Predict the structure.
Amino acid sequence: MKLHIKNTFSKELPADKVIENTRRQVHDACFSYVTPKKTAKPKLLHVSDDMLEEIGLTKSDSESDTFLHVVTGNEIYKNTHPYAMCYGGHQFGNWAGQLGDGRAINLFEIQYNNKQWALQLKGAGETPYSRTADGLAVLRSSIREHLCSEAMFHLGVPTTRSLSLSLTGDQVLRDVMYNGNAAHEKGAVVSRIAPSFIRFGNFEILAARKNIDTLQTLTDYTITHFYPEIKSEGKQKYLDFLTHVRNNTIEMIVHWQRVGFVHGVMNTDNMSILGLTIDYGPYGWLEGFDYEWTPNTTDAQHKRYRFGNQPYIGMWNLYKLANALYDLIGDAEPLQGILDKYEAIYLNKYIKMMHQKLGIQTPTEASKKMISELERVLQLTETDYTIFFRKLSYVSKNDTPAILFEKVKDAFYTIEKLQGDVLNTWTAWFTSYLFILNSEPIDDSSRMQAMNLVNPKYVLRNYMAQLAIEEANNENYTRISELYELLKKPYDEQVENERWFAKRPEWARNKIGCSMLSCSS
Ligand code: AMP
Ligand code: MG
C-alpha cells in the first residue's frame, strides 16, 4: 500500500514541546504529538470505496493488513508522526476553555490528484486533550458517523468524509442516557478524511491565550492552503478570510435546511473553518417538519440547536470567530460589517433554495408568501419533510387541490387531523401553489426533473441507522453496506429500495437512538 504523504499542518505550525501523553493545558502550540492506542482485535467492518479512490488507493490495498492496522491505529505509516490538535470552544453558549482532539488523532496528510487530504482516527485513544474521558468511541456512534458523512457527501452537502469503520476488539464503558446505567459496549474507530479538520475553536484558543503570533501563523496557514483565492494582504486578508468563512458557513447551513439535517451540537469547536459538516454526534434527520425539533437530549431544555435555530447559531458562532480574529485586525467595525451581512445573504440563499425545492423558477412576492405559509402548514399535520417534497414533484399544472392532496398524502403522520380548519388551510395552500405553477412556463416533466435533483428520495432516517446498529451489535454487518449503497444515490428512484422511502415507523417515534440521542458516544 503506497500513500502519497505530504504533511503541511504539523510541518508549518508550532508543536507542543512536551511529548508525554498526559492530560494538560497545552500552550504556544497548535498540536501535540501522540501515538494511537493499540487495540485488542481490530476488524474492518466497512470501507468507502469512493473515498478510497479519492486518496489513490485500490480495493486490494484496503484488503491488506497494513490498511487495517493503519486505520485502526495499530501501525504508524512509515515516516509519519500522528498528532492531536489544540482547540477551544464555546459549548452551548459558554466559553469552555481548552478542548482539543480528545479522541481524534491525525495520522498524516495526503496529496493526490491535486487535492490535499488529512486522515484522522476517531476513537484511537487518549491525548493531552482527553480531559476526564477515555479517548475511545463506541460502535453505535461510529456507524452513525461513517454512514452519515458519506450520505451527506452524496447529497451534495459540504462535509468531512469517512474512509473506514472498524471494531477495535476492546470494550468501552458508556452511560448512554447519563442516568447511572453505564454498560460495556463494543469499541470502534472511524478513519475520517477532510482537506482539513481545523475548527473555529483552533483560532479561539490562541486568541483567548493572547497567543497572537501563533494565531497569525495559523490564519496564514489556513488561507494559504485552503483559501488560496484570497490575494489581499495585511488586515484586508484577514477580513477577506472571515468573509469566505461566513459564506461557506451559510452555504453549509442552507444545505442542512434543504435536506432536513439537524447537527445537534453546533458548538464552536464543532464548526469547520472550511464550512464542512463535522463531528457527527447526536445529529438527526427531520421526519415530521418542525422548526423546534432537536435530536439531542442534552439540549432538550433550551433547544439551542433545534432545526429552526441552526441559521442563527451559524451567525452566533461566526461572531466568536470574528472576536478571535480581532487581534489580527485591531478594528471591530469592518468585522461587524461582515457579520451584519450574514442574515441577508442567508435569507437570499434560503429563499432561492426553497423555490428550487418547490420547482418554482421565478421568485415573486406571491411565491415568497406561499413559502412562508407552507412552513406553517407543514406543521399542522406532522408532515414528513422528505416524502412531502419528493411526492410534490408529481404535481401537474392541471391538478386540482384535491388531486394534489392525494399525491402527497403519504407524507402526513397525523392524517386524522386533516379536517375542518386544517383541511381548509391545506386546500388554500395547494390552491396558491397551483396558481403560481400556472404562471410559469416550465412543463411538468422538466419541473419534476429539477425538483428531484434537490429533494432527496433517501436520507439516513434516524431509525435506519439504529437498525444497522442493533444488527451490528449482534455481529451482522450487512445492513451497513446496504445503507451505504442506498445513500450513494439519494436522488435516484431506486425502485428496488422503495421500502426505505417511507415514513418513520411508529416504534421509532420516541426510541432512544432514533429520535433521542445524547452526547455519549
Ligand atoms: P464533542 O461534543 O463530541 O464534539 O466533544 C467535545 C470535546 O470533548 C472535544 O474536545 C472532544 O475531543 C472531547 N471528547 C468527547 N468524547 C471524548 C472521549 N470519549 N474521550 C476524550 N475526549 C472526548
Ligand atoms: Mg467535537
Notes: The chain has three domains: 9-200, 210-351, 360-441. Residues 360-441 form one domain. Residues 234-259 form the longest helix (26 residues).
